[in-house]
């Protein structure tokens, strides 16, 4: 494993998940710095992962080789302004932004110089080593490329895209999509409760079924997902009735439209921020 130090600036949900995945896969806690302006959030990261923590972004910037910018997109300009005014040579650092809707060119503008920048679009299952991260960068050394790949493949699957605009597609397909699955689970859970199952039973039933379905897809790559569905669906049976209802409500089109809304929103943010 590389001896680079990596700092996560703005360690909230997403960076917590990435750090968790890194620690689980063997990164040394002392090579990771987590910052937040909120001491309570840092106390949890320190207790859970034993990484270094600080509320001082500039100290983290000073001490790290790789800087992951992980604040909400709307907070990014303000953060970059403080980093830019620190008396530190930013050209010696490798930056990674996990923010949706801010281009490399705009991030460089926010930092006041053409720093080396990786766009990364991770997702929260990274915490369990089951994440997906889309990566885009230009001009990395092979050492930098290897390090970034080590970090993000430690949290699950890491996949490089050729054009920056594909990062917006990755948001729709994997960055935001855990929420689509949770929404579907919420809907089943809600109906299970309406049918009389206790809250505890409803939760256990829905999560075990989601896990089982995902695990069946993962463990049998030779079987298409639509075939796995067909295997549950007896002709003229109960599943058929439910699936036909979902199809009659245009589920496929609805999902595709939702993913287009996700991409459109990322493009709008690129203009706004
Ligand atoms: N949550 C998700 O599923 C995903 C999020 N992202 C991206 O990750 C970024 C962070 O999102 P979340 O982790 O969900 O947000 P979050 O709000 O949970 O975390 C951001 C943290 O940054 C801290 N913060 C804000 N300004 C700061 C500053 N100047 N210095 C130090 N700390 C500061 C906040 O206290 C907060 O805890 C966003 O840009 C988002 O687009 C990307 C992929 C998935
Ligand atoms: O909702 C968002 O904007 C972020 C990016 C992908 C997941 N969460």
TrEMBL record:
SUPFAM superfamilies: 6-phosphogluconate dehydrogenase C-terminal domain-like (SSF48179), NAD(P)-binding Rossmann-fold domains (SSF51735). Residues 5-101 form the Pyrroline-5-carboxylate reductase catalytic N-terminal domain. NCBIfam families: proC. Catalyzes the reduction of 1-pyrroline-5-carboxylate (PCA) to L-proline. It catalyses: L-proline + NAD(+) = (S)-1-pyrroline-5-carboxylate + NADH + 2 H(+); L-proline + NADP(+) = (S)-1-pyrroline-5-carboxylate + NADPH + 2 H(+). HAMAP family: P5C_reductase. The gene is proC. This is Pyrroline-5-carboxylate reductase. Its EC number is 1.5.1.2. Keywords: Amino-acid biosynthesis, Cytoplasm, NADP, Oxidoreductase, Proline biosynthesis. It is an enzyme of class 1 (oxidoreductase). Belongs to the pyrroline-5-carboxylate reductase family. It comes from Pseudoalteromonas aurantia 208. Pathway: Amino-acid biosynthesis; L-proline biosynthesis; L-proline from L-glutamate 5-semialdehyde: step 1/1. Gene3D superfamilies: NAD(P)-binding Rossmann-like Domain, ProC C-terminal domain-like. Residues 164-269 form the Pyrroline-5-carboxylate reductase dimerisation domain. Signal peptide: none annotated. It is found in: Cytoplasm. InterPro entries: 6-PGluconate_DH-like_C_sf (IPR008927), NAD(P)-bd_dom_sf (IPR036291), P5C_Rdtase_cat_N (IPR028939), P5CR_dimer (IPR029036), Pyrroline-COOH_reductase (IPR000304). It comes from the Bacteria.
């Amino acid at each position: 494993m590389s001896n680079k130090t990596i700092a996560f600036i703005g360690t909230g949900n997403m960076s917590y998940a990435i750090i968790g995945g890194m620690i689980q896969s063997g990164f040394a806690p002392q090579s990771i710095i987590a910052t937040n302006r909120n001491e309570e959030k840092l106390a949890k990261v320190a207790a859970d992962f034993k990484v270094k923590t600080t509320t001082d972004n500039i100290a983290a910037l000073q001490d790290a080789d790789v800087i992951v910018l992980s604040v909400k997109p709307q907070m990014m300009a303000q953060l970059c302004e403080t980093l830019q005014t620190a008396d530190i040579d930013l050209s010696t650092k490798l930056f990674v932004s996990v923010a949706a809707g801010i281009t490399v060119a705009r991030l460089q503008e926010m930092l006041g110089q053409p720093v080396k920048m990786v766009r990364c679009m991770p997702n929260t299952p990274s915490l369990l080593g089951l994440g997906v991260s889309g990566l885009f960068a230009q001009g990395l050394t092979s050492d930098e490329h290897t390090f970034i790949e080590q970090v993000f493949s430690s949290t699950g699957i890491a996949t490089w895209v050729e054009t920056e605009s594909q990062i917006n597609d990755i948001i729709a397909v994997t960055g935001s999509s855990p929420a689509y699955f949770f929404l579907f689970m919420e809907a089943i859970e809600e109906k299970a409760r309406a049918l009389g199952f206790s809250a505890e039973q409803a939760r256990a039933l829905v999560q075990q079924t989601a896990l089982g379905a995902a695990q069946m897809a993962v463990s049998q790559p030779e079987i298409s997902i639509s075939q796995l569905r067909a295997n549950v669906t007896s002709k003229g049976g109960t599943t058929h009735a439910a699936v036909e209802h979902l199809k009659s409500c245009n589920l496929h089109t609805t999902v595709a439209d939702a993913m287009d809304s996700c991409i459109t929103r990322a493009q709008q943010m690129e203009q706004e921020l």
